[in-house]
Design a protein that fits this description.
The chain is mostly helical. The protein is 60% helix and 0% strand.
């Protein structure tokens, strides 16, 4: 099996904010799971979700960034899908799924956030040659 060699030809950055998209989805899933209490923690979760929809656009990338409006619209759709899936997941707990599965969205959120943190720190600390 041959490995691709690094070339001087720049390709577009296809992984632009992909890792934060997983965090966004699992955060929305967890918010949908706890939706209905309307407490202070829900307000903070909604603000965090809004931040994860918009702020990753400002992260550094190698390629050209897409248009902000279309990018934010796509991430908003992912967040709404995660919220709807979280509400459906909440309805299925205790009937279709065991109650213990209620911890799954937060567990996946922690794993994806840890991976995203590692990827972002690696991209910031990566050594880049001066052209």
């Amino acid at each position: 099996m041959m490995h691709a060699m690094h070339s001087n030809i720049e390709s577009p950055d296809r992984g632009f904010a992909v890792d934060t998209t997983f965090v966004l989805f699992f955060l929305a899933l967890d918010l949908g799971l706890s939706f209905g209490s309307f407490g202070f923690d829900d307000v903070l979760s909604i603000l965090t979700l809004a931040a994860f929809v918009t702020v990753p656009y400002l992260l550094p990338s190698n390629g050209e960034k897409p248009d902000f409006e279309s990018w934010a619209f796509g991430r908003t759709l992912i967040a709404l899908f995660g919220l709807a899936l979280g509400v459906a997941f909440k309805q299925s707990l205790g009937t279709v799924l065991p109650i213990g599965f209620g911890y799954l969205p937060m567990t996946l959120l922690i794993v994806s956030a840890t991976a995203s943190c590692y990827v972002q720190l690696f991209s910031i600390m990566r050594f880049r040659l001066v052209k």
